[in-house]
Design brief:
Blueprint: E1 2-5, E2 11-14, E3 21-30, E4 33-43, E5 48-52, H1 59-66, E6 74-79, E7 82-83, H2 89-94, E8 97-100, H3 112-116, E9 123-124, E10 131-132, H4 134-147, H5 164-177, E11 182-186, H6 194-209, E12 213-218, H7 221-227, E13 230-235, E14 238-244, H8 250-258, H9 261-270
Parallel strand pairs: 5-12, 5-13, 8-11, 11-12
Antiparallel strand pairs: 1-2, 3-4, 3-6, 6-7, 9-10, 13-14
Helix pairs in contact: 5-6
Amino acid sequence: MTTSADPAGIPVPVPDRTPLVALDGVSKYYGTIRALEGVSLEVHAGEISCVLGDNGAGKSTLIKIVAGLHRHDAGTLRIDGEECRLSSPREALDRGIATVYQDLAVVPLMPVWRNFFLGSELTKGSGPFKRLDTDLMRRTTHAELLRMGIDLRDVDQPIGTLSGGERQCVAIARAVHFGAKVLVLDEPTAALGVKQSGVVLKYVAAARDAGLGVVLITHNPHHAYLVGDRFVLLKRGATSGSHTRDGITLDELTREMAGGSELDDLRHELERAPVPTHIGGPPAGAASDA
């Protein structure tokens, strides 16, 4: 945090606006196929950056670069202002970037608490007496879910018995608990109904309010505008628009997402010609040749 002086000369702290994650002109190619071309994105603490686009727009490739699955071919990726090239999802996680994919990667028949600590189990004892600390993991899971506003009666129930929205919320709470600074969410509301989508968006906003930087990948401008602070629109691997919340309305965002002028052209193509009212004979009142 830096400081500046007010008119009286008293030092005033100035918040550090260095993005947690910043992509600048990032491109990715698979042979001759252009998956991304010159895409830029900033993720700030306590903000939600929404990436919107239809299928094939490049959203999945962008996720893979931020999550460390794929390396970018051009442009720069900075984490906390430091330029880097992530080599694996583990490195991304170590740098504070947690990605929650649409399929969630949970084990449906395992209890909620086992899924919460999957791969990061707590143990007690040592040597041949080392064993899982199941009581602590149960208590921690319940407490962390409750802190995010999720009150499960029984963390021993199989996670597969939860609704899709509840499973998404468990994954979000898990990422927050394990120290994520940046949370990347891959279409978290795509397969959910209206009510469950609202539940998930509430917990996305809770993660933002906890100080995380959130990347929300979605094709739904209405969901994005409910919680988003920044909007990046992708089309065929390139940026078709970049806006802050105060710079665009929901109608404008929806129109731009839908294609703008292309949508107008389609509307004109689909317009029906007016049907004549005098089909089968002369119009009423017309003069006869007889």
